Amino acid sequence: MLTETSARLTGVPSIDLVALLPVIAPVVALLLILLADALRPGLRLPSDLIGLAGLLTAAGGVAYLALDGEDRNTACSGGFVVTTGQTGPTRLPESLSPAEFGFGCSYVVSDLTLAVQGIVLLGAVACLLLALNGPGAKDRTAHHTLLLATVAGATALAGARDLATLTVALETATLPTIGLIALRRDAQGAQAAVTMLLTAIASLGMLLLGIGLLFLATGSLYLFRIADVLAAGPDRPVLVVAVAGAVLSLAGIGFKVSLVPFHMWTPDTYAGAPLPIAAFLSTVSKAAGVSAAVVLLGIGLPALHEAWAPLIGILAVLTMTVGNLIALRQNVAVRLLAWSTVAQAGWVMLPFAAAGPSRDSVREATAGAIGYLLAYVVASLAVFAVVVLVARHHRSGEEHTLQTYRGLSRTEPVASAVLAFALLCLAGLPPGVMGLIAKVVALRPVVDAEVWPVAVIAALNVALALAYYLRWVALLVAPGDRSAPRWRLRPAEGIVLGGAAAGCLGLSVGAEVIAGLLPGILH
Amino acid sequence: MTESAALLAVLLPAAAAVFGLLTKRSWAADWAVLGSAGALIAAIAELTLVSTDGPVSSIGLLGSAQLGSITIGLDLRSDQLSAVVAVMVALVALCVQIYSTAYFQGEGTAETPTRYRAYAATVSMFTAAMMLVIHAGDLVLLLIGWEVMGLASYLLVGHHSERAAARAAAVKAFLITRTGDIGLVLAVVVLIAGAGTTSIAELNRAAAENEIGHGTAVTAVLLLLAAVVGKSAQFPLHTWLPDAMEGPTPVSALIHAATMVVAGVFLVARMLPLFLTAPGALQIGAVLASVSMVGAALAALAQTDLKRLLAYSTISQVAYMLAAVCVASDRELGSGDPVGLAAPGVAHLLSHGAFKALLFLAAGCVVHIVGSTALADMGGLWRTHRSLAVLFGIGLLGLAGVPPFGGFWSKEAVLGAAEEAAHAGTWVGWMVLVAGVATIVLTGLYAGRAWSIVAMGRTQLSPAPHHLPAAMVFPLYLLAVPSVAFGVLLLWPPEVLHGLHIQPGTAITGALLAICAVAAALAAPRLGTADIATALPARAQTVLLDAFGFDRVIRVLVVRPVFWLATVVKAAEHDVIDAYVRATGPTTTIAGKLLRLAQTGLASAYAAWVFVGAVVITVAGMALV
Amino acid sequence: MTGTGYTWLLPVLVLLPLAGALVLLAVPLLSDRLAAWIGTAIGGVTLLLSLLAAFVTWDRGFGRMQLQARTDWISALGLEASLGLDGVSTPLVLLTALLAVLTCLHLTRAEPDRLLVVCVLTVTGGAIATFTALDLLLFFVAFETVLIPMWFVIGVWGDGRQEGQPANAAARFVLYTAAGSAVMLLGIILVITRTGTSDITELIQRGGAGLSATTQTVAAVLIVIGLAVKTPMWPLHTWLPPAHTIAPTTGSVLLAGVLLKLGTYGLVRVAVPILPAGMANVAPWLGGFAVTGIVWAGLACLVERDLKRLVALSSVAHMGFVLLGVASMTPTGLQGALFANIAHGVVSALLFFVVGALKDRQHSSDLQQLGPGLRDRMPRLGWLLTFGAVAGLGLPGLAVFWGELLAVAGAWQSSGLGMLNRPFAVIAAAGTVIAAAYWLRVLRVLWQGRPEPGQGPDATRHETVTMMPLVLATVGLGLVPGPLLGATAGVVRLLLPGGGAVP
Amino acid sequence: MIHLLGPLVLASVLAGLGVYGILARRNAVLVLIGAELLLNAANLLLVAASTLPAGGLAALGQATGQVQDPLIPGQSMAIFVITIAAAEIGVALAIVLLLFRARGTVELTAVQELGEASATYTETPQTAKANGQ
Amino acid sequence: MSGLEVLFIALAVLGGASGLLAVTSPRVVHCALWLVVCLGSLAGVYLVLGAEVVALVQILVYVGAVVVLVIFALMLTRAPVDPSPRLNGPPLQKLAAGAAGLAVGGILAGTLIYAVGGTEVQVRSGQGGAKPIGEAVFSGWLLPFELLSVLLLAALVAAIAVSRRPADRKRDEDGTR
C-alpha cells in the first residue's frame, strides 16, 4: 500500500529579458504602434519607424546574444520535489531522474535559436520595407501590427523548447499572417486567406493531436524531457504512440514549410496575397515552419529518427520533384515563385533524411537545413524585391506573367542583373555560389548517410529546377521593348534590392557563413 | 657529314614545299625543281658517304617522345639501303618535277584556276615524306612519313577534283591504304607493349637475338604485312591503284609506280630480321604476292586504258619484289644475313623505279599528244614521234625483262631467290617460282601489246606533228639511262645488292620466255589484229578488264554494309538515344500537368490532402518502428 | 626542386579574366568592338602569364604541384581556395588562354558584342580555375562556373534562324550537363565526407587509402557519370551536336576547346588517382562506352548533312579516344588521353573557326549548300578546311595522331580493361578509318568538285591570322610531341596506383 | 478509478467527426464548426492524458509512486488551446465575412478561381476582371 | 464500473451524437446548437476527468463566446434557415470526407487502444482547481501564456482590420494594393 505522495513546485520562473529581446522588441513595437494609432490615427512615418525600430532592436538583440556567445535558458520551471509520508523522496522511475524533476525551460538561446531568429528578422525587415508602398500603405497600423506579431511568434518559435510555447508561437506566427493576406480585402485576398486558413486549421488540428499523443506517451511538454524519456527506450506501445504523435506533429508543421502534400495552399495564397506578403510567407513564415520542425524533431524527438528521417527523406524529394515539375510550366511570376518555394522547401528539409542515432548526425542535419534556409531566404528576398518592383511598374499588376520580363535587361540592367543572380543562387549554379554551397551543405549529410535514392533524386532535381529559373533569366536578356519607362525606385525598395543583392554577393564570396552557421552543439 | 646529307635529303623537299606555298606564285616551279634537285644531290652525297664511312644509326630530327617508361626517339638513320633508295626516289622526283613544269603549262581556266603551285608543293611534300620513310630510324617516324605520303597521294590523285572519277579515286586510294595502315598503327602499339621499343635498329637487333616474344613478333609482323599490302597495292587491298590513274600522269609515275607503292617492300626489307622471326607471316605475304603477280598481269593484258594497263603492271611488278623478300625465310643463305636476303627485292625495286617512271612519263607524253588515255585512241607513234616510241619501248622491254635491260637482271634475281627457296624444298619457293615464270610470259605479252598498239597501229594523231616541250623529253632520257644500264650496276654492286644471285638456268628460261612473249604480241598486227587481247574470248576480256570483279566484291562486302550501318546509327541516334532525352521534356510537362490537376482551388480539398498526408505518414511512421 | 615565389601567378591568372569580365559587364558605354579588343588584350595578358606560369612550372618540375597558392574559404566544409599547376594542367591552361585570345580576336571583326566578350572571359577564368583547382569542391564550383556563360553564348547569340532553336539547344546543354554535375557532386561529397579532406593533392597522395572498395566504386560511378556527360561520352552525348550546331563560332570554339576538356581533366585529376579501386571497376565500362562512341559517332558522321553537326559528332569520336586512354589506367593511355585532349582542342577549334567562316558566307552549314569546289572558290578557306579535316582524321605528323596512338597503345596493354583491352584497341584503331572516311566525304563534297561561280570572298587576313596559331599548333604538336609528352610523362605515374607499373 | 481509454476513444471519434465536417461542408461557417470539433478532440486528449501520473504512459509501468505533475501540463495546454481556438475562430469569421462581402457567398465551391486546375482560373485575373467590369 | 464511468459514458454518448449531428445536420442553426450541446457535454467530461478549470473555460469561451460568434456569422452571411442540401459538397466529396474522417479517427483510436488498453487512472479532484492551475501557469507556462496574449491581440487587430470596409479608392494612389 502506497503512502500518499504529493509533489510541490519549487521556485518561480525568472525571465531573462535580454535573452527574450528578439521576442519582446517586436511586441513592444506592436504595442507602441497601436498606442500611437489610438492617439493620433493615420500616422504614417512614425509607425513605419517604430516597426522598423522594433525589428532592428530585435536584430540587435540577436547580434548581442550571438556576440555574447553565452547560452541562456529562461522561463524555466523550478521543477518540483516529491514528498511522501515516509522520510526521503520516493523511488522514482529511472527515466525521471533527478529527484527534482519536471524541470524544464521554455526558451533557450542557442546557436540554433539565434540563427533562425537572424534569418527571420532579416526577412521581416526586408518585407516590411517592401510593403511600405504596397499593402502597408493603406492599413499601416494593422499591417505593421500583424507583421510584428508574426515576427514575435517566429522568433519565439526559434527559442521555444516546450510544446506549449511551440504551439502558441507557431500559431502566433501563422494567424496574423492570414490577417495580412486578407488585408487586400477583395475577393482574391479573401479566397487566398480562406485557403490558407483552412489548411492552417486542419494542420493545427493535426499538430494538437500529435502533441496530445506525445504528452500522453511521455507525460511532459518539455522537449528535453521528452527526448530523455524516449531515449531511455520505452515499451513498444509507448513508442508507437510517440511516433504517431511525432508524425502527426510533423504533418501539422508541414504546411508552414510547404512540404508536399501539405503544400497545396501555397500557390493559391501566394497568387492571391499582396506580393510583399507573398515574400513574407516565403521567407519569414517558412523560416518559422522550418524552425518548428527543427526544434521539434531535432531537439525533442531525435530518438525517433528511425521513424521520421525516412519519412522526411521521402517527403523532401517528393516536395522538390512536385514543386519543380509544376513550376516548369508556370507563366505567372508569383506562381512560379510559389512553386519554386515548394521545391526549395524540399531542399531545406532534405538534410533531415540523414538523421541517425548519433547526436552529431542530427546536428549536421540541422546545420544543413538552417544553412540552406539562410541562402534560400536571401536569394528569395532579392527575387521578390525585383518582382515587387516590376509589379508596381506594370499595368497588369501582381499577377504579371513572365513575359513582362522580356528584355528587362535593356531597360533596367541593374535590377535584372540582381534578379538573374538571385535566380541562379536559387538554382545553385555559379555565379550563384551561395546557392551551390547551400546545396552542398544540404546534400552532405544525406550523402554521408548514403541515402542514395534520396540523394540522386535531389541531384536530378537541380537540373529540373534550373530549367525554369533559366527560362526566366533567358527572358531578361531576350530582345524586348526598349521604350518602357525607367523605374522610379523608392528608398525602401532600393534598400531591399541593394541589400538582398549585397547579401547574395556577400554570401557567395563568404559562403563560409552558410556552411558554418551552426558550429556548436544542438540544444 | 652523313647526318647532314640525310637530313638535307629529308628537309630540302620539305622546305621546298613550304617555300613554294609561301612565296610568289611564279616561283613555285623553281622551288619544286630546286628542292628535288637538292634532295638528289644530298642523296648521292649520302650514298657515297655511307659507302665509305658506314651507316649512321641516330640522326636527331624531331626530338624524342617519352611514353611512360618508353622513350620513342624520333630520329633518322642512314645506311646504304636508305641511301640507294633515296637516290632512286630523288632521281624520279626530280624528273617528275621537271616534267611537270611543262606538263601543266596552260592548265587552268577562269573558274578553276591553275593548281600548279599546290601540286608542286604537294609533290615536294611527298618527296620529303618518302625520304622520311626511307630514313626513319623509328617505326613511329616511319608511320608519319608513310601516312603523309598517303595524304599526298590523295591530294594528287584528286588533282582534277572537278572530275567525279578523280574524286572517287582519291578517296578510295586513301581509304584503302589507311585500312591497311591500321596494321602499322597497331603494330607500333603491339611493339610498344611487347618489345618496349619502336626503334627499327633496336627491333631488328632484338629480333635477331630472339628477345621478342613469339606472340608479339607474329602479331606485329602480320599487322605490318597488312600495311605493306595496302600501301603496295597487293591483293586484296589492290583495287585503289588502277583507279588512282585518274591523277595527273607525272604523279602516277612518281607515286603510283616508282616510289610510294614500293614503300611496303622497303618496309619489309628494312625490318627483315623482325619478319624472319615469323616465317608463317612471310609465307602469307608470299601467297598474296603470287596471287597479285599473276592476277594483275592477267588484268593488264586486257586493259583498254594505257595508264590502267601500266597500273596493273605495277601491281604485278611490286608483287615480284614482295615475293622476293617473302621467300627470304625459306632460303638457305648462310646465317640469315638480312641484307643479302633482301637484295633481290631491293634490286627489282630500284630497276622497276627507273623503267616504270620512264614508262609513265613516256605514256604521259603520248597522252599529251593524243589527248586521251584510251588505247583505242592511240597508234602510229613510231611514225610521228620515233624517239618517244623508242624510249617507250625501252621502258617496256625493261618491264618485260628482256635482256640486257635493267628489268631483266632484277627480275632474274627475284626468280633466283625463289628457285633457291624451291630448292630448299618449300612450297612457297615453288609457288613463287611458278607464278614468277608465268608472269614473265604475261608481262611480255602485255608489254608487247602496249607497244604494238601505241607505236605501230594506225595513226590516229592529228596531221600536224605535235612538238613536245624539252622539259618533258629530257626526263625521259634521264630515266632511260638507268633503265638500260641497270645491269652495269651488278658488275660493281653496292653492299646492299651483294646478295644477288642470278641462276643461269632460270635466267635463260626467263629471257627466252620474255622474248617470245614480246615477239608474239608484236607479231599480232601481222595476224590481223593490232591488239593481241582481242584474241581472247569476249567473256574473258570482260572479266580481265574488270580485274575479276573484285571491286564489286568490296562494294558489296564492305562499303554497302558500312553505309547501311551508318544510316541505322543515325536513325538510332535520333530515335533511340536522343529520344530518351527529348522525352524528358514532354514527360515533365505531362507530369506537371497531371500534378497540377490537384490544384482545384477548393480549400477543403487542400485540407483533405493535409489529413490524408497525415494519416499516410502516420501509418508509414508506425510501420518504421 | 620546388622553389617558392610567383605564388601570385595562379590567382591572378584565374581572377584576371573574371575581373575583366566583370568590368566589361559593368561598363555599358564601351563599343562592342572596343570591348572585343579589350578582351583580346586581357586574353593576351592571360596567355603571357600562363606562359610564364608554364615556364616556372617546367623549371621547377612538372611532376609536382607548383606555384601553389592557398587560402581558407569555407572551413566548415574544409574547402580551401587552393590552386596549383603541374604537367597535367599546364597544357590545358595554355590552350584555354590561347583560345581566349583567338576568340576575342575573332570577335573584333565578326559578331562583336560586349556581353559575348564577357562570356568568353568568364568561361576562360572558370576553366583556368578548374584546371588549377587543388580542392575538390573548388574544382566543382569552377567546373560549374562555365555553364551559365556558355548557356548565354548558345542561347543569346546562337543561330536563331529557326524560332526557339537557340533556347532549346542552350537549355539542353545546360540542363544535361547540370544534371550530370549534380550527380558528380554527390560523388565528390561522398569522397570528402569519407576521407575528411577535400585537398586534391592530399587525396592523390592517399590514393584511395581509407576508402572501402564499395565506397570508391559508388563515388567513381557518380563522378564518372557527371564527367562523362561533360566529356561527352556515348550515350550521354546528345546535347553536344545541337549545342555546337546552334552556337556561334565563338561558342563552338570554346565548347570544343575548353568545355569538353573539363570533363576529361576531371577524370584524370579526380577519378583516376583518388578512386583507383573504384575506377578499376568502372574502367571496363568506360572503355566500352568510349569505343562504342568512337565507332558510333564515326558512322553517324558518314551520313551527316550538316557540317557543324558533323564536326560536333567527330568531337564525340575524338573524346572517345580520350576516354579510352583514361579507361586504360596505364601511363601511356593517360598520356595519350591528355595529348588527345589538347590536340582535339586545337583541331576542333580550328575546324569550328573554318566552319564558322563558311557559315558566315553561305548562311548555312549544310554540306550541299556550302559546296562544292571550295578549293577553287576560296582557296585559303578551302585549304584550312582540308588541313583541319586531315588533322581531324588523325594523320600522323599532326597533333591528333599522337593522342590516338597512345590511347590505343594504352588500351592494348591495359590490365584494367580485362579481357577486352585488345578488342577495344583494335576497334578504336578501326575507328580512325571511319574518321578518314567521313572527313574525305566532307572534302569530296565541299572542297573538291566543280565550283559554282559567284559565291563569297575568301578568308580575310583577319580570319587567317585568327586561325594560323591553331594550324601552327597542330603541326607543332604533331611533329614535335616531345615537350607535351614530357610534361605529362612524370606526373601520370603519380596519378596511377602503384606508379602505373604495367605488369 | 476510470478507464483511460474512454475519453481517448471519444477524442478519436470527435477528431474523425471534425475531419468529416471540415471536408464535407460547403458552407465556410459550417466548416469552422468541424474545425472546432477537431480542436476539441485534441483538447480532450490532453485533459485525459493529464490524469496520468507524471511521466505519462512511459512511466506507468515503472513508477512505484503515483506522483502527479504539479505543472499540470495537459490541462494548462488545454486552456491555451481553447484560447488559440477562440482567436482562430475570430479571425476566421472575419475572413468569412469578408468573403461574403466580396462575393456574396460563403460556399467554398464557389470560390475556386485561384486554383490552377479550376475552370475559372486565368493567368492574369486582373486584366480579366478589368475586361469584365 | 464506477459511477464516474457511467457518468462519463453518458456524457460521451451525448457528446459524440451531438458532434455527429453538428457536422451532418442540414439546418445551419441546428448545427450551431448541436455544437453547443457537444461542447457542453465535453465540459462535463472534463469535469469527470477532474479538470474543473478547463471545463469552466470551455463553457465560458466556447459555449459563451465562440458559438455566439458562429451564430452571428451564420446570420450575417444570410445562411438559410431551412434545411438546405447546399450545405454539403457533392456526394463524392462527402464520401471522401467520410473516408478521411474514418481514417483519422480510426488511426487515432487504433493507436490508443493498442497503447493504452485497459489502463485505469485515478482521478484527483483537487488538481484541476483554480489554484494549482494558476500556480502551474505562472510558474511553468508563463512564456506561452504571455505569448498567447500577443496572439489574441493580433487576432483582434486582424479581425478588426479585415472586417473594416475597404478603404476608399482614392487612397490607391500607386495603383497597388
What do these coordinates show?
The complex is a heteropentamer of chains A (523), B (625), C (503), D (133) and E (177). Chain A is mainly α and 523 residues long. In chain A, 69% of the residues lie in helices and 4% in strands. The longest helix of chain A has 34 residues, at 359-392. Chain A is globular, with a radius of gyration of 23 Å. With 503 residues, chain C is mainly α. Helix content of chain C is 74%, strand content 3%. Chain C is built from 21 helices and two strands. Chain C has a two-stranded antiparallel ribbon. The model of chain D is unreliable at 127-133 (pLDDT under 50). In chain D, helix 1 (5-24) runs antiparallel to helix 2 (28-49) and helix 2 packs antiparallel against helix 4 (73-103). Chain E is mostly helical. In chain E, helix 2 packs antiparallel against helix 3 (52-76). Mean pLDDT of chain E is 85; it is low at 168-177. Chains in contact: A-B, A-C, A-D, A-E, B-C, B-D, B-E, D-E.
- Strand percent estimate of chain A: under 5%
> Could you say which structural class the secondary elements and strand pairing of chain A correspond to?
mainly alpha
Count of helix runs of chain A: 21
Strand order of the largest sheet of chain A: 1-3
Shape type of chain B: globular
Descriptive key words:
heteropentamer; A: mainly alpha; two-stranded antiparallel ribbon; two-stranded antiparallel sheet; 4 strands; about 70% helix; D: about 130 residues; mainly alpha; Helix Hairpins; about 65% helix; disordered C terminus
Summarize the structure.
Helix content of chain A is 69%, strand content 4%.
List the helices and strands and how they pair.
The complex is a heteropentamer of chains A (523), B (625), C (503), D (133) and E (177).
Chain B: H1 2-22, H2 28-53, E1 56-67, E2 70-78, H3 80-103, H4 116-135, H5 139-157, H6 164-194, H7 200-208, H8 214-231, H9 240-243, H10 249-258, H11 263-270, H12 272-276, H13 279-301, H14 306-326, H15 338-370, H16 381-384, H17 386-400, H18 406-423, H19 427-456, H20 470-489, H21 504-523, H22 538-545, H23 550-596, H24 603-624
Helix pairs in contact in B: 1-2, 1-4, 2-3, 2-4, 3-4, 3-10, 3-15, 3-20, 4-5, 5-6, 5-10, 6-8, 8-11, 8-13, 10-14, 10-15, 11-14, 11-15, 13-14, 13-19, 14-15, 14-18, 14-19, 15-17, 15-18, 15-20, 17-19, 17-20, 18-19, 18-20, 18-21, 19-21
Chain C: H1 9-26, H2 32-60, E1 66-74, E2 79-85, H3 89-109, H4 114-132, H5 136-145, H6 147-157, H7 165-195, H8 200-206, H9 213-230, H10 240-246, H11 249-274, H12 276-302, H13 307-328, H14 331-362, H15 367-370, H16 374-377, H17 379-392, H18 399-412, H19 421-447, H20 461-479, H21 482-495
Antiparallel strand pairs in C: 1-2
Helix pairs in contact in C: 1-2, 1-4, 2-3, 2-4, 3-4, 3-11, 3-14, 3-20, 4-5, 4-6, 4-11, 5-7, 6-7, 7-9, 7-10, 8-11, 9-11, 9-12, 10-11, 10-13, 11-13, 11-14, 12-13, 12-19, 13-14, 13-18, 13-19, 14-17, 14-18, 14-20, 14-21, 17-19, 17-20, 18-19, 18-20
Chain D: E1 2-3, H1 5-24, H2 28-49, H3 56-60, H4 73-103, H5 125-132
Helix pairs in contact in D: 1-2, 2-4
Transmembrane segments (chain D): 6-25, 37-58, 78-100
Pfam family, one (chain D): Oxidored_q2
Catalytic activity (chain D): a quinone + NADH + 5 H(+)(in) = a quinol + NAD(+) + 4 H(+)(out)
